[in-house]
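Incident log, support desk, overnight shift.

02:14 A customer reports that sequence design results differ from what the structure should imply. Their input is reproduced verbatim below. On-call engineer (initials T.W.) acknowledged and began investigating.
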């Protein structure tokens, strides 16, 4: 027989002694329906049901989180003897994580024991998560890199190929981790046809180590088309101009010699002629 209990105000059921009650209220029925809102004020809510159906399209977690405590939030799955699984927001890392964990769902943090795999469909939009297959076949399979040398000849480095830096003519290369290629110059450089300073009016200096000398083991050529004399302060400069009385066309100047006036080196033929003429 159906019964209806109606009150004109709030209706409170208390069990046991004391203001808050100390025993349980048990509803032993096939179906218990609450027609209005259900508010549970307590520290724990446990549902011992085989199937849970929720109409609400959005589930709100960590309702009273004020962000004053590093609070992780998400879904934890018990796995029996194995570590539990969790998909949650890690507040410290500010990222979603799929992990295995020894945490039991109490407290405010998840302790990761390992990362878990997440499977997704092949991406179709630019903002979709990329699968391993997509990266391997689309990105990896379609990857190519073009490099060029000074001659502008392009070389394509495709997937699985190696871009190798090779030395030669006194240059050696060596690779090392992480991502480093070192280029070394040996003591002797060969087959070098020109060394040019690209800066306007800048010096090009050849220096020997310690007490060594700069040795020119062949012909040293001075072009004779320069105009004017270089300024030499506290150093000696050798240069070439149109031959004059010395008959060589090789000149030098130094501020400590003849007040810096340029002098021409005299040839053997001119020296002999002068020696004869001067007796």
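02:41 Re-run completed on a clean worker. Output:
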């Amino acid at each position: 027989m159906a019964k209806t209990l109606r009150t004109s105000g709030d209706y409170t059921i208390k069990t046991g002694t004391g203001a808050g009650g100390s025993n349980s209220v048990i509803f032993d029925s096939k179906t218990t329906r609450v027609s209005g809102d259900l508010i549970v004020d307590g520290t724990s809510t446990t549902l011992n049901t085989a199937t849970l159906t929720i109409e609400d399209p959005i589930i709100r977690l960590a309702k009273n989180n004020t962000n004053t405590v590093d609070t992780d939030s998400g879904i934890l799955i018990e796995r029996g003897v194995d570590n539990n699984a969790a998909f949650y927001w890690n507040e410290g890392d500010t990222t979603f994580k799929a992990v295995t964990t020894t945490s039991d769902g109490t407290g405010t943090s998840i302790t990761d024991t390992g990362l878990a795999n997440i499977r997704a469909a092949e991406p179709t939009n630019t903002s979709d998560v990329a699968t391993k297959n997509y990266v391997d076949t689309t990105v990896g399979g379609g990857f190519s890199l073009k490099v060029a040398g000074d001659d502008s000849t392009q070389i394509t480095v495709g997937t699985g190929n190696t871009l190798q830096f090779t030395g030669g003519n006194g240059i050696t290369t060596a690779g090392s981790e992480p991502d480093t290629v070192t280029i070394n110059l040996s003591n002797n450089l060969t087959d070098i046809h020109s060394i040019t300073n690209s800066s306007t009016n800048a010096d090009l200096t050849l220096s020997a180590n310690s007490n060594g000398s700069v040795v020119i083991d062949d012909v040293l050529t001075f072009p004779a088309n320069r105009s004017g004399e270089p300024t030499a302060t506290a150093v000696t400069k050798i240069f070439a101009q149109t031959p004059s009385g010395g008959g060589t066309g090789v000149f030098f100047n130094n501020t400590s010699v003849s007040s810096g006036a340029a002098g021409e080196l005299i040839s053997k033929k001119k020296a002999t002629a002068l020696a004869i003429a001067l007796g």
